[in-house]
Amino acid sequence: MSHKIAFLGPKATFTDLAVSRLFPNELKMPKATIPDCIDAVQEGEADIAVVPIENALEGSVNITIDYLIHEVQLPIQGEVITPIQQHFMVHPDQAVAGFKPETIYSHPHAIAQCHKFLHKEWKGIPCEEVTSTAAAAKMVSEQPERKIAAIANELAAEEYGLTIVQHNVHDYSYNHTKFIVVSKESVDYKGHVTVNRGWKTTLMVMLPADHSGALHQVLSAFAWRKLNLSKIESRPMKTGLGNYFFIIDVEMALDEVLIPGTISELEALGCKVSILGSYPSFAVETAVKMG
Ligand SMILES: O=C(O)C(=O)Cc1ccccc1
Fold first, then answer.
1. Cβ(183) to ligand 1 under 6 A?
2. How many other C-beta atoms lie within 10 A of the C-beta of residue 144?
3. 168: DSSP letter
4. Domains and CATH numbers, the chain
5. I need a surface site. Which of 56, 99, 124, 170 has the fewest CB within 10 A?
6. What is the complex's ipTM, to 2 decimals?
7. Is pLDDT above 80 for 289?
8. What spacing in Å lies between the alpha carbon of 107 and ligand 1's midpoint?
9. How far apart are CA 14 and CA 55, in angstroms?
10. What pLDDT score does 285 carry?
11. What is the rounded CA–CA span in Å between residue 274 and residue 206?
12. Continuous segment of H or E residues that includes residue 144
């Protein structure tokens, strides 16, 4: 029986490309927003959600982290890293010499990944943020009479019949995004077409208030056990200025000794710790096309 995978839609988003590599044989369920994807799992409408969490150029997708921490507590069951190539596209009716867009549409992260391009080529043209790159492409395809453009991937251009006017408009060639897999149950990745990168464990740590050297002591608990950290990020607790929690990625699977020992040590310091997930990491090595 195939699983239902909620993803940031519509068809042909970067998330869709990641899903097609990780779950080639499952049923895809496009959703309009990241919270909609996570809610679909929480409410049992979907088995799995795949949503973006971090981009190499722009940093974290805060809505994903915040929604999982503050709204819906579902475990992370996997991650996949994929290369991202952004293209500038218009409706074929507008693909004429001298075309100048009135507005450029895309996902906020895509706009941020192309700031230098936008500043150089289209200075002063307003950019409008929409829910995904494919949503921008779809919108442009539905309004042939308007002088508008989208920044999206090649598959979106194909899917929505747009003409790519300029390829590879992202500002740095190393442009990768990490997507997470969330599900109530552990996930079977049979059939995935990606590379295995080992296991990770993600922890959420709240420091005790007003405790000098607390962060140093937290890091020491990992350091003397020789636990390799690949990410540490702070996000506001939303309870007051200066109140932050930390998201920490440890480069190993949850074991019975080292990670539980670290957590006990952190708790003895007065920290609150929760495990957001222990999961396999995957990578897509080449820019993906569907199929
Ligand atoms: O909008 C999309 O296509 C997404 O999947 C989110 C996103 C946006 C920009 C880079 C990577 C993922």
1. no
2. 13
3. -
4. 4-84+175-196 (3.40.190.10), 87-166 (3.40.190.10), 198-278 (3.30.70.260)
5. 124
6. 0.97
7. no
8. 6
9. 12
10. 84
11. 9
12. none
Indicate the SS3 state at residue 273.
strand
- Å from CA of 134 to ligand 1 middle: 8
pLDDT, position 291: 45
Which residue is closest in CA terms to ligand 1's atom 12? Answer: 14
Burial of 123 by CB count in 10 Å (0-12 exposed, 13-18 middle, 19+ buried)? exposed
Q: Could you give the C-alpha distances from 131 to 105, 135, 138, 282, in angstroms and in order?
A: 10, 6, 11, 25
Q: At what angle do helices 258-268 and 214-223 cross, to 10 degrees?
A: 160
Q: What is the Å distance from ligand 1's center to 284 Cα?
A: 15
The residues pairing with 249 across neighbouring beta strands, listed in sequence order, are: 202, 231
Give the C-alpha separation, 84 to 82, whole Å. 6
Integer Cα distance of 92 and 33 in angstroms = 28
Q: Which atom of ligand 1 is nearest to the CA of 156?
A: 3
Query: Does ligand 1 lie within 6 Å of residue 109's CB atom?
Result: yes
Residue type at 275? I
- pTM (two decimals): 0.94
